Amino acid sequence: MNKSDIDPRFTTSILDGPADILPIYNKLHPDRQQNVYTYAEKQLNEQQNENVVPFPEQREIVCGRGTAAGAPIDGATQDAEVRRTRVNVDDIPASANEIVTVEGDSMEPDYPKYSQIFVRWQDTIDDGDLAVVRVADEGVTFKQVSRDYQQKKIVLHSLNDKYPDRYLDPEDVSIIGVVLN
Fold it and tell me: Using one digit for the tens of pLDDT, what is the confidence trace for 104-113?
């Protein structure tokens, strides 16, 4: 049973077939005709875009390097492997400059071997920050970095208790960037 069988107000419906809108449109004042046109144009645009799947917004980021989580690794070798890739902006911190692969177990369990970290390049950090650092004559490593003010040393701390803290002269450590994740 149809609604029109019960209530005659439903006998003419736009759903029953195409309506001739032109005579109605022609009776409208020009400003109202513009409203109808604008609305119809908006409806057409929405209809045409119903089957369009939007791609996530992406941006380019540096990747391909690894950082030691243990003994430092050769930074020059890592620099030779650098490349750029595009990633969805929702998948990375807004201020990240690079995705770096952790190569080693000294930052476990929080950062397992071969996990990836996001790094923001900067040359200063706060005490206790996780950072990627270059150790003079050794290479690049990922550690929690702090200062020992009494000994006037930089402390590189591994999260994995198997590894002892390293105390280095400040001139032997340079900050590459802070870890964001």
Answer: 999 999 999 9
Mean pLDDT of the chain: 86
Greatest CA separation found in the chain?
94
Rounded CA gap, 73 and 149, in Å? 27
Q: Which residue has the higher pLDDT, 65 or 155?
A: 155
| CA angle, residues 159, 164, 166, in degrees to nearest 5 | 100
Phi, psi of 76 (to 5 degrees): -65, -40
User: Which amino acid is it at 79?
Assistant: D
DSSP-derived secondary structure for 120-145: EE-S---TTEEEEEEETTTEEEEEEE
Question: Two tokens at 39?
Answer: 């609305």
pTM: 0.66
